[in-house]
Amino acid sequence: MKQWRKWLPAVLLGILLTLAACGGESGEDASNGNENEGENAETSEEKGTVRIGMNNWAENVAVSNMWKLVLEEKGYTVELEQVEKGFLYEALSSGDLDIGMEIWLPNTDKAFYEKYKEDIDWRETWYEGTKLGLAVPSYMEDVNSIEDLKGSDAFPDKQIVGIDAGASIMSLTEEVINEYDLDYTLAASSEPTMITELKSSMESEEPIIATLWKPHWVFSEMDLKFLEDPKNVYGDSENISYAARKGLEEDQPQVVKWFDNFMLNDDELGSLMASINEAGDAQEGAQKWVDEHQDLIDEWTKE
User: How many CA atoms lie within 13 A of 185 on its CB side?
Assistant: First the structure.
C-alpha cells in the first residue's frame, strides 16, 4: 500500500499531461474547423440586391425578367419595380433604383437625358435600330403615309389607338397630329389594350391605326406596316441603352461589366419577347429562352 501511495502523484501527473496534450490537439482541430466554416460562409455570402426599374413595354419586360433570372443564378437578389418612364429617371438620379433598361436616345428620351444628364450614369447600347410611328394593317393598301390620313375616309372613327398617356410616343403623336393637320383624336390606353384592339380589328379586317415601335413581338405575329413620316416628326432610328445610378459601377463592378457586354439583335430580342408572349408568364417565358441561349449569356457574363 505504501508503495502505491509513493507512485500515485506521478501517475496523476502523467494523466494530466496526456489530457492537456489531447486538449491542445482538439483545440487546434476546432480552430481549423471554424476557419473552414468561415471560408464557406464567405463564399456563399449574399452578393447584394440589384433593383431594376421596369416600364410596361414588351421588350423592357422581356429583358428585365431575363436579367433577373441570370443574376439570381449568379447569386444576386433582384427586385423588379414597375415604373413609368418619368419616375424611372427620378429614381435613378436619387439612387432609389440601380438600373433602368429602356433608354431611347438621341430623340425619344432626349428631354429626360437633358434633365438628368449629370445625375445618372448613362451606359452602353444593347439594341440598335429602333423605330417609332403609326402602324396600320398591311391590308390597308391605300394608306402608306401619314399624309394619306388627311382627308381619307378609310378610318371613319378618326381615332389613333395609343398607349400610356405619359409615354414619349404619345407626345410625339400629338405633334404628328398638329404637324400634319390631322382631324384625328389620340386615345390613351395601355400597351395590352392597344394590342387587344389591333387583334380584334385585324381578325375582322377592319381599319385601325395604332402607335407602335420596334422592337416589338407584334410584328412577328401580325401583318403590319409603319406609315411613312415625310416630316420626320418621330425622328430617325434610335438605339436602346441602359442607365445606372451613380456609384453602381463601384458597388457592383461585375454586374455593370455584364450589362455593358449585353447586346441583342432583332432575331434574339424577337424570340425572347415571343417566348414570353407564348408562355403567358414573363418568368416562365424568359426561363425557356435563357435555357435555349446559354452560350449567348455565357458570352455576356464571362469573367
Answer: 6
